């Protein structure tokens, strides 16, 4: 299925969970926050939250800023 | 007042340093860490952005050089031009920092000046305060707006000295003074200082602290400037507490007139 991941069209496996997506991207060890369709998904729900076709997923991290 | 009791109190937490620093625009994370160390800052801002997908996924993260047990991390909403994105950014930041509710709210109105959109800032502040955030808010040097933000429950009000990243110094010291005189929450000058004397001036006006980024990061020697800023803040604070002499137009001799032998 196709989703939009950090603004880019991306092909992922059907019914993927957020935990699986993050693992596949090699981001498992990182401190992240995730939005799906502009709604925050708490980290505690990553394991259960399944991504649907057309979802807009944003994976967010801290960066330097003033 | 003794120096040891002169701490900065924000949202119930005491800080020894009155210098707050950003972490943007540095050459690398090593320079960031060294400059922050030299500044003595305890409150450090970060931004929240998209993770790079598929590239540099093992590169070190800013939070690795800013251990949360040592620093109070202050996530900002830089780059937000509307209420919705500012609120979303704060929610993401709170999740990123395990529920830590302190945020720096800025809702910008214009790319050229980066002046705050005051109407949107007021709306976003109201939503965030209701949602349990401790809001430190970037605003204009307008005493009426500052008073309103305080009455809404913001934990610190942060008027600009000059446009973000401009280094122009305090353009409107009398307004900053009025804001300070009206306030019961900490007033922190945020943005626009260029060098250590600007930081000292803000403190001499009675501000509770200064938040800066570019003035340190864009100096030729950022680590040295961080140290200069630390001293400027301390000197300005002590001068404020000491109470400066009244300025006079004409001279007043420092040596006694009495006992002259000629």
Q: What can be said about the biggest beta sheet of chain B?
A: 5 strands, parallel
Which chain pair shows the most residues in contact? A-B, 26 and 39 residues
Report the end-to-end length of chain A measured between terminal Cα atoms.
Answer: 38 Å
Structural class of chain B: alpha/beta
Short description:
By secondary structure, chain A is mainly beta.
Write the layout of secondary structure elements.
The complex is a heterodimer of chains A (66) and B (262).
Chain A: E1 2-5, E2 8-11, H1 18-24, E3 33-36, E4 39-41, E5 56-64
Parallel strand pairs in A: 1-5
Antiparallel strand pairs in A: 1-2, 3-4, 3-5
Chain B: E1 8-10, E2 13-15, E3 19-21, H1 29-39, E4 43-50, E5 72-75, H2 83-96, E6 102-105, H3 118-130, E7 134-139, H4 143-151, E8 156-159, H5 173-182, E9 188-190, H6 196-204, E10 209-212, H7 214-217, H8 222-242
Parallel strand pairs in B: 3-4, 3-10, 4-5, 6-7, 7-8, 9-10
Antiparallel strand pairs in B: 1-2
Helix pairs in contact in B: 1-8, 2-3, 4-5, 6-8
Description:
- The complex is a heterodimer of chains A (66) and B (262).
- Chain A has 66 residues and is mainly beta.
- The radius of gyration of chain A is 12 Å and the shape is globular.
- Chain A has one helix and five strands, in the order E-E-H-E-E-E.
- Helices cover 11% and strands 36% of the residues of chain A.
- In chain A, strands 2-1-5-3-4 form a five-stranded mixed β-sheet, with no helix packed on it.
- Chain B has 262 residues and is α/β, with parallel strands linked by helices.
- In chain B, strand 9, helix 6 and strand 10 form a beta-alpha-beta unit.
- Chains A and B meet through strand 5 of A and strand 4 and helix 2 of B.
């Amino acid at each position: 299925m196709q989703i939009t991941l950090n603004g880019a069209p991306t092909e992922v496996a059907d019914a993927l969970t957020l935990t699986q997506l993050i693992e596949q991207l090699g981001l498992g060890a990182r401190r992240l926050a995730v939005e799906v369709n502009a709604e925050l998904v708490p980290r505690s729900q990553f394991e259960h939250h399944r991504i649907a076709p057309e979802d807009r997923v944003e994976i967010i991290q801290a960066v330097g800023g003033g | 007042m003794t120096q040891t009791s002169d701490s900065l109190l924000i949202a119930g937490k005491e800080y020894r340093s009155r210098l707050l620093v950003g972490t943007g625009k540095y050459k690398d994370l090593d320079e960031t860490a060294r400059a922050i160390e030299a500044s003595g800052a305890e409150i450090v801002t970060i931004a929240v952005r998209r993770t790079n997908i598929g590239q540099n996924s093992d590169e070190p993260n800013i939070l690795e050089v800013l251990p949360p047990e040592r620093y109070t991390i202050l996530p900002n909403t830089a780059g937000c031009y509307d209420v919705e994105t500012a609120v979303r950014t704060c929610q993401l930041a709170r999740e990123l920092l395990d529920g830590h509710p302190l945020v720096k709210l800025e809702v910008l109105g214009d790319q050229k000046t980066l002046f705050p959109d005051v109407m949107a800032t007021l709306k976003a502040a109201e939503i965030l305060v209701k949602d349990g955030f401790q809001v430190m808010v970037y605003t204009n040097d307008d005493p009426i707006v500052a008073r309103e933000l305080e009455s809404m429950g913001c934990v610190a009000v942060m008027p600009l000295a000059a446009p973000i990243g401009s280094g122009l110094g305090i353009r409107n010291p009398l307004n900053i003074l009025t804001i300070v005189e009206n306030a019961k929450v900490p007033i922190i000058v945020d943005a626009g200082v260029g060098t250590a004397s600007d930081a000292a001036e803000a403190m001499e006006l009675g501000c509770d602290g200064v938040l800066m980024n570019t003035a340190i990061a864009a100096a030729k020697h950022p680590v040295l400037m961080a140290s200069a800023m630390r001293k400027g803040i301390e000197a300005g604070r002590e001068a404020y507490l000491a109470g400066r002499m009244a300025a006079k137009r004409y001279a007043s001799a420092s040596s006694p007139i009495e006992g002259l032998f000629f």
